[in-house]
Write a sequence for this structure.
């Protein structure tokens, strides 16, 4: 049975729905990369604050990578996400999708297309 809870964001204090994982459905936050440890503390964040926290953490991680370190990065070993997330995997510029470093890191190698944000 799926249980939906109303929570208060620990960052902006807005109310939001938080769903427990069950076989029928799962919480919205499970659509994001699993990059946070439960031991890092803090309570749940609303969708807006959670997305911002993911973007910040990923951006900070990407800044530490060299092309050599990118070949053995964390993103490759994480469970594959079914959908792309705007702001994390890509942004839209002049109607075109521009893939961010995280998207490329998940792929695991350079595609050879001279992508703007290729970490390799």
């Amino acid at each position: 049975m799926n249980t939906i809870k109303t929570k208060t964001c620990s960052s902006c204090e807005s109310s939001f729905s938080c769903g427990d994982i069950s076989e029928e459905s799962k919480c919205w936050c499970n659509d994001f990369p699993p990059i946070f440890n439960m031991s890092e503390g803090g309570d749940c964040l609303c969708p807006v604050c959670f997305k911002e926290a993911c973007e910040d953490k990923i951006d900070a991680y990407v800044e530490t990578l060299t092309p050599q370190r990118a070949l053995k990065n964390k993103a490759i070993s994480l469970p594959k996400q079914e959908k792309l997330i705007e702001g994390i995997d890509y942004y839209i510029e002049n109607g075109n999708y521009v893939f961010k470093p995280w998207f490329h890191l998940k792929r695991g190698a350079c595609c050879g297309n001279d992508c703007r944000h290729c970490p390799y």
